[in-house]
Design a protein that fits this description.
The chain is α/β, with parallel strands linked by helices and 373 residues long. The chain is built from 12 helices and 16 strands. It folds into 2 domains: 145 residues, Endonuclease, Chain A (3-Layer(aba) Sandwich); 191 residues, P-loop containing nucleotide triphosphate hydrolases (Rossmann fold).
Length: 373
């Protein structure tokens, strides 16, 4: 069982690679130590969040539809009315290409993680309306989300294509079949399922019964009724947690996010510290090596008799990290110092990692061998 000390999980034994994720998850007091949010990734990259119901994030509105339903136009109108940023399939592909490399070189299975990274970053600046295949599966179970879907009978959709593309009916039929096949394949590749499940949506509208402006009225009323525009934007603390987990997922596909933190050459006291520094560098987590010492015992004249210097400080998470060997004598000695540090400096956040923890992370998340050497 894990005990929680000063907001951080501390295990008596059996530490694992998940310790680092738990440490980062609990590392920012702004949200996580207040119990406002807990994030984990479900199947096929969907982010599942357990959020206190009185805490709302930025508005995240997804607008999707069957092929040829003009749901993209609904998304555009909604974004204009609600003063939200519009993110279309094409724009998302352009950002992925510019941030992570050519779109055709990116695996479809990596797409949910790439999209999460981009949308989370955009969400720190403005509320979002997203019109992209499968976007409704990205931020599930968040109070600040509204997932809209447009459906129409086939005859209506054929008519849309005939008017928009100036096609004959048979040509429109062939095109509609191609569009449906492409959309199903894209869903299958990205999320592991081809079909649309209506329970994945909060609001489904029939384009045959409602004109575009009328659907926009309904969508706008739903957003205002939920108070979504009154919510704050995506917090920087929440984005930091999500981006860290996204980096771990992307590493499995050999994708390194841009602007990674470059490793600062240091003289490390132990090889495990070098490996841990490489791990942090690979995932763009800023760090300082042995930045300060904490006095633990003094003599009667105030002279420091004993001090403790943690191996790393992660400024992004206000967290000190100490690595230790598997030798029990060293572990016992170090644990005593850490208990003293926590008693004397209760405001200082510190977490202990064993060499096995670092090795497990390297193996579990597919860190390239060159960084583990």
């Amino acid at each position: 069982m894990d005990n929680v000390s000063h907001g951080f999980p501390v295990t008596r034994s059996g530490r694992s690679a998940q310790c680092l994720l738990r440490t980062i998850r609990y590392g920012r007091q702004e949200m996580f130590q207040q119990g406002l949010l807990d994030i984990h990734f479900g199947n096929h990259g969907a982010m599942v969040a357990r959020v206190r119901y009185d805490f709302y994030w930025m508005a995240f509105i997804t607008v999707s539809g069957e092929p040829a339903t003009r749901h993209e136009e609904l998304a555009r109108i909604a974004a204009q009315r609600l003063n939200c940023e519009l993110v279309t399939e094409a724009r998302l592909a352009d950002i992925i290409a510019s941030e992570f490399g050519a779109a055709e070189g990116v695996s479809d299975k990596a797409w949910p993680h790439l999209a999460l990274s981009i949308l989370a970053k955009l969400g720190t600046e403005q509320h979002l309306v997203v019109s992209s295949t499968g976007a409704e599966l990205l931020f599930r179970n968040l109070p600040g989300i509204l997932r809209v879907h447009v459906t129409e009978p086939e005859s209506r959709r054929l008519g849309n294509l005939m008017v928009d593309r100036r096609l004959e009916r048979e040509e429109a039929k062939d095109l509609l079949w191609d569009m449906e096949t492409e959309q199903s394949a894209l869903r299958k590749h990205r999320f592991g399922r081809a079909g649309v499940r209506f329970e994945s949506y909060d609001l489904v509208m029939n384009g045959e019964a409602l004109a575009i402006d009328q659907m926009a009225d309904v969508l706008e009323a739903a957003v205002k009724s939920k108070g979504m525009l009154e919510a704050g934007l995506f917090s920087l603390a929440a984005e930091a947690q999500l981006q860290f987990q996204v980096r771990l997922k992307l590493a499995r596909f050999g994708i390194v996010p841009p602007n990674r933190v470059h490793l600062v050459h240091k003289e490390f006291g132990h090889p495990s510290e070098q490996v841990f520094a490489n791990l942090l560098d690979f995932y763009r987590i800023a760090w300082d090596y042995e930045p300060r010492s904490f006095a633990l015992q003094w003599d009667k004249d105030g002279k420091v008799l004993e001090a403790f210097t943690p191996d790393f400080y992660l400024p992004e998470f206000d967290l000190y990290v100490e690595l230790t060997t598997m030798k029990q004598a060293n572990v016992t000695k170090k644990n005593r110092k850490i208990r003293l540090l926590r008693a004397i400096y209760p405001h200082v956040n510190i977490q202990v990692f064993y060499q096995k923890d670092v090795r497990d992370l390297v193996i579990k998340y597919g860190l390239p061998e060159r960084l583990a050497q």
